[in-house]
Design a protein that fits this description.
By secondary structure, this protein is an alpha+beta fold. 43% of the residues lie in helices and 29% in strands. The protein has 7 helices and 9 strands.
């Protein structure tokens, strides 16, 4: 039994299971937080909204989402939408806080989750501020292959426009970089289908770009 199963078995913890179709918004930045979310199945896109512009931050699978807003303030700090058929548990906020206060293992699980997300966020900041465009694309490929799909062959879970925005480049620049990756034997790319061919070269681009 997982830690999450232990958490969901706590008496008086209030939650419901919800299903979302591709493209549906699970929660929106700036709205009041009535619950935290546990992503049970599927993939979601986390993004910031500012002046009618949406900046994708990352793609996530499994685990808690929205923990950053539990104690800081009462508003969600970002928006989340489903990238495919997605199933989540919506856990009522006050009953979840009570479970944390009364069960040390719940607090430990939450701290571990927040620490992991913080580490990934720091890495993301380095990618966006210190790396050139090929390195940013390489990092996204590495994330998808190593963390999201755990496979060197995968299907891009979002449109190329979102992929380009995640790398903070134009769609045209993304197409050029993907062609270079293909020509250099780094990755085989056909439509949305991707297969990493040379992980060493991909790592090198990520490290030196």
């Amino acid at each position: 039994m997982s830690v999450f199963d232990d958490i969901m078995g706590i008496e008086d913890l209030e939650f419901i299971e919800m299903n979302y179709n591709r493209g549906e918004v699970i929660f929106k930045q700036g709205t009041i937080i009535p619950h935290v979310v546990f992503l049970k199945k599927g993939l979601v896109k986390i993004y910031l909204e500012h002046h009618n512009r949406k900046q994708p931050l990352c793609i996530e699978k499994n685990g808690f989402i929205g923990l950053e807003s539990m104690y800081n303030d009462k508003y969600f700090q970002y928006s989340v939408s489903a990238l495919n058929e997605t199933s989540v548990y919506l856990i009522e906020l006050e009953s979840f806080k009570k479970a944390i206060a009364e069960n040390a293992f719940v607090g430990e699980a939450i701290i571990e989750n927040i620490n992991t997300r913080a580490k990934l966020l720091y890495e993301r900041i380095i990618t966006l501020t210190q790396k050139q465009a090929p390195g940013r694309v390489a990092d996204i490929f590495k994330c998808l292959a190593e963390r999201i799909f755990e496979n060197d062959k995968f299907t891009l879970p979002c449109p190329r426009k979102d992929f380009a925005e995640m790398a903070t480049i134009s769609v045209e620049s993304l197409s050029r970089i993907l062609k270079e990756f293909k020509d250099e034997g780094i990755a085989e790319i056909e439509g949305k289908e991707v297969r990493i061919l040379d992980k060493a070269k991909l790592d090198m681009i990520s490290n030196v770009s």
